[in-house]
């Protein structure tokens, strides 16, 4: 009888263990670089972003703007959406103009992207709060945003982990562009209002990554996580 009770208790404990939800990782500091292959001042900032892409606790993203495209070289990663996102930050920070290379840390502060020491200091001083815990399913086909306080847009970002190409015209003609975590697409896929929400998504392709940001209307990051595929 005691053996039967022990067996039942063991099975129950095993089931409870399997059913337990996965724990969300500590929220990374989100670093967004606004850059362009057509900007001669950008390669040093691109190198800083590549370094940050390897740093634990940092989610580094390269948003390539399109306003340099008319000056001799069209950046293959450039997008009007990236320029619009940068304009949104300019309004948030009370700036009338935008520039490259610019880095925005956690949606709260901005600085020149090539100033490595200042960027590292801003990351160190950032105190990311995981108001909206973000957890990816084991199979990479869905993401869960946990319960918390606040409200924000759910932004799904797909990026290529590493991309190299020769720049054939413009200010960087003759150079090789080495881009880390270059954003290819991003879109708002929902609204988080403090309640738990699960969203389906397509899996990540080789050499690519996916990031989910929960961003408040004032620009501050409430939650963030990334999912990476192996580099080819």
Structure at a glance:
By secondary structure, the protein is of the alpha+beta class. It has helices spanning 2-19, 43-53, 80-92, 116-125; strands spanning 29-35, 58-64, 102-105, 109-112, 134-136, 142-145, 152-166, 176-192, 197-200, 208-215, 221-228.
Q: Fraction of residues in helices?
A: 10-25%
Q: What is the spatial order of strands in the main beta sheet?
A: 2-1-3-4
Secondary-structure element order, N to C: HEHEHEEHEEEEEEE
N-to-C span? 57 Å
Tally of individual domains: 1
The backbone outline, from C-alpha atoms, is globular
Q: Strand portion, in percent? A: 25-35%
Count the strands?
11
Mean pLDDT: 90
| Main β sheet profile | 4 strands, mixed
Describe this structure in words.
- Helices cover 22% and strands 35% of the residues.
- By secondary structure, it is of the alpha+beta class.
- The protein has one domain.
- The strands form three sheets. A four-stranded mixed β-sheet has the order 2-1-3-4, sandwiched between helices. It has a four-stranded antiparallel β-sheet with strand order 8-7-10-11, covered by helices on one side.
- A hairpin with a 5-residue loop joins strand 5 (134-136) and strand 6 (142-145).
């Amino acid at each position: 009888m005691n053996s039967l009770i022990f067996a039942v208790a063991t099975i129950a404990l095993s089931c409870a263990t399997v059913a337990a939800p996965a724990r969300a990782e500590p929220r990374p500091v989100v670093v967004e670089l606004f850059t362009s292959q057509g900007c001669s001042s950008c390669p040093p900032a691109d190198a800083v972003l590549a370094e940050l892409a390897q740093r634990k606790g940092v989610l580094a993203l390269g948003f390539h703007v399109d306003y340099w495209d008319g000056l001799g070289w069209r950046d293959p990663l450039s997008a009007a959406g990236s320029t619009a996102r940068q304009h949104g930050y300019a309004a948030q920070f009370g700036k009338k103009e935008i520039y490259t290379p610019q880095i925005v840390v956690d949606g709260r502060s901005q600085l020149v992207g090539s100033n490595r020491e200042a960027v590292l200091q801003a990351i160190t001083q950032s105190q990311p709060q995981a108001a909206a815990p973000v957890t990816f399913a084991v199979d990479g086909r869905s993401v869960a945003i946990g319960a918390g306080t606040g409200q924000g847009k759910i932004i799904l970002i797909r990026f290529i982990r590493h991309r190299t190409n020769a720049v054939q015209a413009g200010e960087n003609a003759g150079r090789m562009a080495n881009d880390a975590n270059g954003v290819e697409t991003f879109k708002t896929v929902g609204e988080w209002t403090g309640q738990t929400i699960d969203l389906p998504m397509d899996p990540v392709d080789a050499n690519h990554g996916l990031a989910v940001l929960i961003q408040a209307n004032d620009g501050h990051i409430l939650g963030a996580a990334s999912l990476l595929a192996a580099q080819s």
